Amino acid sequence: MRRIVLALLALFSLTVARADEGMWLLKLMQEQHLADSLRKAGLQLAPEALYSDNRPSLRDVVGRFGGGCTGEVVSPDGLIFTNNHCGFSFVQAMSDLKHNYLQNGFFAKSRAEELPVPGLTFTFVVRIDDVTARVEALARQKKYDQYKRQSVAVLGPLAETLLKSSDLSKTPGVSARIVPFFGGNRYFLFVEQRYDDVRLVVNPPQQIAQFGFNQDNWMWPRHNADFAVFRIYADAKGRPARYAKTNVPLHRDKWLPISLRGVEHGDYTMIMGFPGRTSRFLTASQVRLRCESINEPINLAGEAELRFMKALMDSDKAASLKYAGSYMRLGNMVKNFGGMNASVASTRLLDIKAREEAAFREFAARSGRPEYKNIIERIDSLVAAVRDTLHDYNLLRFTYGAQDFHPNVNALSGFILRFAPRVQANWQRLDRGKKQIKAGAEEKKLYRDFMQSAYRAALTTDFDYDLRKMKLLAPYWAKHHRLKAQPDFVREDMNAYFDSLYTKTDFRDTAEINTYMATDYFETFSEDPVISHWLYYERLIDEVYRPALARYEHKLAELEQIYVRGLCEMYGWTKAPDANSTLRMTYGSVRGYSPRDAVQYDWHTGLKGMFEKENPAHPAYVVDEKLRQHYLSKNYGPYADANGELPTCFLTNNDITGGNSGSAVLNARGELIGLAFDGNIESLSSDLRYNPQLQRCINADIRYILFVIDTYGGSHYLINEMDIRR
Question: Which element (helix H / strand E) includes 338?
Fold first, then answer.
């Protein structure tokens, strides 16, 4: 009896502790009774103002920025806000030491100065439809297993078929994708429209946008203005188009108004964006697998590589610009994964999951559903079988797979599958220049695609840097790998191996590569040591690790569908679906937090905090000198608070994750009050389970953003086109 009571208490606590948990799919707003919760929380808008299938709503102003962030329209002329770190790689690619828009910043003074950004796109959601019945009917007809029915190979063609038969089939720039929800128990069709001409308008200097850099990443308090401004352009009829001088700013009938009234503790907040991925329906064994077989091996090698990169970047301006994006991405991942593991331990998440599993077993027994019996044990068994393989796969990718020089993966895959086996059969017996086998037309094309990607990789690779990095990382594989399987190239003396690899390669000589590009012969080039090395690495991944992981994923898909469906039934389908890079809304309020005994964090910061952190001896904490003058003179324009100080950042308890970067933070009236740009390190296990006491979203105050655009940067023309409410 005591065990049953404890299980039920655990279930009750998990239910009532939901608070503002949830990255909600607004298409399910009525079904999940979300509208009532929003009104009780303080929303002053009608629910249909958030999302509507056929009327203007916030769906029309929030879009996917690039491939993995969020942006929002803030003027009728296609002006969009997002985070600086979302545009970081694009601005880096546009920068050089003469025009260093990344580190020195960029402020257009008119639309004529706005710069095209190669490769950057912005995508709006046009429609969301429930297509669960169509997917299940197709799966039954074709006898697809649960894994295949969730695959792009199946869902992609079905999405195209549904789009072709819709009234949107001839709309320019429109595409469709079907996305699984609730472990493959529901499916939704997202019709989206992509714009390909996006231009840079404002990018703050790095010392302002990323003050604190990786040292402050996932930390509070914060003082960086992590924002950037872009604009969407279209053809004269407002249709998506590639960049052209004749394109015009995209007109939008709906955009976000901006509030300068500020925020107070307890104020209602909501965030709309494209959160990347959460995994809140996992078993305890799956949580442990995530921590021990993904996070730990990646961090082992990642922390060493970060130290290596930082030492070089601190001593070389050109290297600092070249590797800035890589350093930021890897640093963010490593700190996130380390923080997640620490948070899992400190919040005793494994114990919480164990209590949830106990409650589920009681529910399963009451339900009388045989498929729920022993489903947890079946998942646990599957996890135990894949644990070491998954660990070594991730360790391999972040040690030997961290080589800077590598051709395009898709081109390489085609080369390996069709071409490399024939070449490798000759590697041991061919002497360069003595015997060559002429390629057929198909092999020649595959080879040329592979060569072109290798050539591009060679032009951007610092081979001496790459050599030092590979020597640094090799011992991490040797010491920490678990399985007996080893890459074919592993030697007792890896330093000597890499010395030979990088000194003998012809890829250092672009003239030599051009010679190979002009010939129909390929065997001699395929003997190049760096190509041999990379082919061996890829073949190990393809032949050993990926098949084993694919078998695991196929089996897991079937079991997870059952377990997630059971959990949702246990909770009465009141849980939000896991994040999966689709449009979501989360609501909460402005509030601080207490991460541990005797520590209490306030909910907001001001510019004075930047100067309290200032450290001229530390590159991360060097203050921008122009900003210093504004601070000393209190020249904040109309963006100071009632006390004459400049607000910088604030905290909310909104439920966010990666992909929400750049998301609009809105008040109860739907006005923009800030941009979400980070979370706090104490709550990084929230991707696995939301923690209402610790989960916080770090936001840049809109007054700080407008100050940098207007008073600091001088892009005054932008202020006139926005709806700014004082």
Answer: helix 317-346
Token pair of 341 as six digits: 């593991």
pLDDT of 229 above 70:
yes
Let me know if 381 is a catalytic residue: no
User: Alpha helices, DSSP H only, in 505-618?
Assistant: 510-517, 523-526, 529-540, 546-570, 608-613
Structural contact between residues 326 and 506, judged by C-beta atoms closer than 8 angstroms = no
582: left (phi over 0), alpha (psi -120 to 50) or beta: beta
Rounded Cα–Cα distance for residues 177 and 274 (Å): 15
Per-residue three-class SS string for 436-503 = CCECCHHHHHHHHHHHHHHHHHHHHCCHHHHHHHHHHHHHHHHHHCCCCCCCCCCCCCHHHHHHHHHH
* 445 has pLDDT over 90: no
d(CA 438, CA 593): 69
**661 catalytic per annotation:** yes
Contact 651, 697 (CB under 8 A): yes
Catalytic-labelled residue, pool 20, 60, 75, 85: 85
Q: Which string of b and e fits 492-512 if b means at least 16 CB within 10 Å?
A: eebeebbeebbeebbbeeeee
Helices 349-367, 2-16: inter-axial angle, 10-degree rounding: 110
DSSP letters spanning 121-136: -EEEEEEEEE-HHHHH
Q: What is the pLDDT of residues 688-712, one digit of tens each?
A: 999 999 999 999 999 999 999 999 9
Instruction: Mention every residue, 6+ apart, whose C-beta is less than 8 A from residue 36.
Output: none
8 Å CB contact between 671 and 257: yes
Please state, in angstroms and rounded to a whole number, the distance separating the CA atoms of residues 27 and 32: 10
DSSP reduced 3-state for 397: helix
Chain segment 339-365, per-residue pLDDT in tens? 999 999 999 999 999 999 999 999 999
Q: Tell me if 669 sits within 8 A of 663, measured CB to CB.
A: no
* CA 208 – CA 227 distance, rounded (Å): 10
- DSSP string for 152-202: HHHHHHHHHHHHHTSTTTTSTTEEEEEEEEGGGTEEEEEEEEEE-EEEEEE
513-to-339, 418, 508, 606, 644 alpha-carbon distances in Å: 44, 22, 9, 55, 62
First to last CA, the chain: 61
Calpha distance 102→96 (Å, rounded): 9
Residue 85 bears catalytic tag = yes
Which amino acid is present at 327? Y
Tell me what the mean pLDDT of segment 624-630 comes to. 98
CA separation for the pair 612, 591 (Å, rounded): 23
Residue 392 identity: D
Among residues 196, 226, 267, 578, the one annotated as catalytic is: 226
Give the span between the Cα atoms of 43 and 22, in whole angstroms: 16
Looking at every residue in the chain, the average pLDDT score rounds to 90
Say how far apart CA 184 and CA 560 lie, in whole Å: 8
* Helix residue ranges, H only, 17-151: 34-41, 84-94, 132-142, 146-149
Mean pLDDT within 408-420: 60
CA distance 282 to 288: 10
Residue 40 has pLDDT above 90, yes or no: yes
Catalytic residue among 95, 661, 663, 686: 661
Residue-level length of the chain: 726
Q: List the one residue out of 378, 355, 347, 363 whose CA is nearest residue 689.
A: 347
Mean pLDDT of 603-609: 98
Contact assessment for residue 286 and residue 383, using Cβ atoms and an 8 Å cutoff: yes
User: Residue 202 burial (CB < 10 Å; 0-12/13-18/19+)?
Assistant: buried
| Cα–Cα distance measured from residue 664 to residue 666, given in angstroms and rounded to the nearest whole number | 6
- Nearest one of 462, 469, 470 to 308, comparing CA atoms: 469
Separation of alpha carbons 228 and 84, rounded Å: 5
